[in-house]
Amino acid sequence: MFNSRLAAIIRKEFIQILRDPRTLVIILVIPIMQLFLLGYSATSDVRNVTLAVYDQSHSPEARALLDAYRAADYFRIAFAVGSEDELRVLVEMGEARAGLIIPPDYAQRLAQGNAHVAFILDGSDPIVASTAFSAAILIGQAHATQILTEHLARSAQNIRLQPPVEVHTNVWYNPDLISSYFMIPGVIGMILFAITSILTATAIVRERERGTIEQLIVTPIRPWELVVGKIMPYVILAFVDTLEVLAIGHWWFGVPIRGDLTLILALSGLLLLSGLGIGLFASTIANTQQEAMLTVWMTLLPSIFLSGFFFPLEAMPTFLRWISYVVPLRYYLVIIRSLLLKGVGAAALLDEIIALAIFGVVIMGAAALRFRKRLD
User: Looking at the predicted structure, is the pLDDT value of residue 311 above 80?
Assistant: First the structure.
């Protein structure tokens, strides 16, 4: 009898979802849109910075310097100007994000070994400016080393240039430093947390708005059966979204899946407890679907910004880092990124798993008790 009652509620909820095209779009289409938008746009890989050049030398040496900047894909020489004022106007208008000024005596000073050029950067966007700053210095140093090597070779001096200290870098797990490898696992966490909490809250409040929840209460259905029956369809659909994002992220963006897929889904279920609990709790506070949405968003916004989804936790002030410890999404992002990129096992993530499980059980338990009291 118990199984038939619970199955009836789940079947009823699935029928309502299938009859509402807006809900289907939110569940199935919105995650794909978020994946592609964030996978392509939310990236710190700065390339093709527009560069304006004021070349006063017009010498072969100056052209060799420009070729060095042109060869690197960090800069795109878009403008050749005739004065510093013209370069300033382009930077002020935002048409050029950087400017290179080559003095008229560049070739002569280069022969003497003390040439200087000026590199102007638009610092209004610090992310672009910091990347362009590092790239400009590295390209200049590499070009200077090449000139020195060629000079020694021409002078027939058999001298091997060897710096006193060499740093050999080795990047693990993401050697090309592709931003989508970092962003797409975060999308999985955001989808699981946001969609489940929003849809759970609005689905229950919708029953209250239509007056059908009173009809369910007077039936032999027990309160916990009503809770499980209402949220179970969204649990299933959340796992469908997870597999959807994993498949597209792997086959389209090339994000590796180095961890065990069963472990990924199992630990994703721990985050679902928190998301469903927040949605269930919001449904006990709100009387309309709009109120339920606003209530859920009050928890979603801090979770997104304090979980390390967009911004690294290490860059935050100390008091915000302390607040982030009560954000369940923080722990899941560490878990999912470690599983996908590093391929670690559960033992390496034990602290995060325990914290996420505690949050899930406490939030879901408190929300279920409050929901049951409201039904009574």
Answer: no
Cβ pair 53, 79 in contact under 8 A = yes
Assign 276 a pLDDT band (cuts: 50, 70, 90).
confident
Are the C-beta atoms of residues 78 and 50 closer than 8 Å to each other? yes
Cα–Cα distance, 98 to 190 (Å, whole number): 35
CATH fold for the domain made of 49-154: abc type-2 transporter like fold (3.40.1710)
Q: Which two tokens stand for residue 368?
A: 């279920």
Q: Which of 188, 274, 267 is nearest to 231 (CA)?
A: 274
How many C-beta atoms lie closer than 10 Å to residue 51's C-beta? 24
Under DSSP, the state recorded for 349 is G
DSSP state of 26: I
Q: How far apart are CA 352 and CA 350, in angstroms?
A: 6
Domain range list for the chain: 21-42+178-375, 49-154
Q: Give one DSSP letter per residue of 80-135, joined into a string.
A: E-SSHHHHHHHHHTTS-SEEEEE-TTHHHHHHHT----EEEE-TTSHHHHHHHHHH
Contact at 8 Å (CB) between 341 and 181?
yes
Distances (CA, A) of 319 to 314, 315, 323, 355: 12, 12, 6, 19
Distance CA 28, CA 17 (A): 12
Nearest one of 25, 29, 22 to 248, comparing CA atoms: 29
375: confidence class by pLDDT, cuts 50, 70, 90? low
DSSP strand E in the chain: where?
49-55, 75-80, 98-102, 118-121
Dmax over CA atoms of the chain, in Å, equals 99
Query: DSSP secondary structure string, 172-229?
Result: -S-TT--HHHHHHHHHHHHHHHHHHHHHHHHHHHHHHHHTHHHHHHTSS--HHHHHHH
CA nearest to 147, candidates 206, 65, 229: 65
pLDDT band at 1 (very low <50, low <70, confident <90, very high): very low
CA gap 183, 181 in Å, rounded: 6
